[in-house]
Amino acid sequence: MNLIFLYGPPAVGKLTVAKELSKLTGYKIFHNHLVRDLVESLFDVKTEKGIKIVQQLRVDLLVEAAKSDIPGVIFTFAYAYSVDNHFVEKILKYIKENGGSLYLVQLYCDKKELLKRVTFKERKKFAKICEPKTLSAILKQYDLFTPYPDKEHLRINNTNITPQEAAKRIFIYYKLRH
Known about the structure:
Helix content: 40-55%
Structural class: alpha/beta
Mean pLDDT: 93
Low-confidence stretches: none
CATH topology: Rossmann fold
Order of helices and strands: EHEHHEHEHHEH
Shape: globular
Largest sheet: 5 strands, parallel
Strand order of the largest sheet: 2-3-1-4-5
Radius of gyration: 15 Å
CATH superfamily: P-loop containing nucleotide triphosphate hydrolases
CATH architecture: 3-Layer(aba) Sandwich
Number of strands: 5
């Protein structure tokens, strides 16, 4: 299985780009908020226990996908430099152990653009951050712009390009097929 690990700060357009990339590849989308929202129905996802459950479910689902006949998955994630390294390493390890390939893609854009995008109404379908003030606080608390270290990846500044163009760049860079 090919795993496209599509990461970047909240409101950068990960899910929107994932949908366009899915059209090009036929890969399934694993939107990280699906698990987070599920766990939040029972536990506080901001506690150590809630975070542990969310991470374990994500890993378990990706491992099972890698063991199956699913050709590819696009996983969206808001990676915080150093804070999330252990989680990403765990995913890398399990995907590799199950014969999969991992493709890292970082989306980023200007902070001013993020603060505009965070208010888009589509974000309210999930328990996403929808307030510029909240996003600003998160951007101060976590390093969401430093790329994941020591692994090949594609970085795309999508401030001024369409989601279709970003998806096309990923498709071409990694020589993906449908």
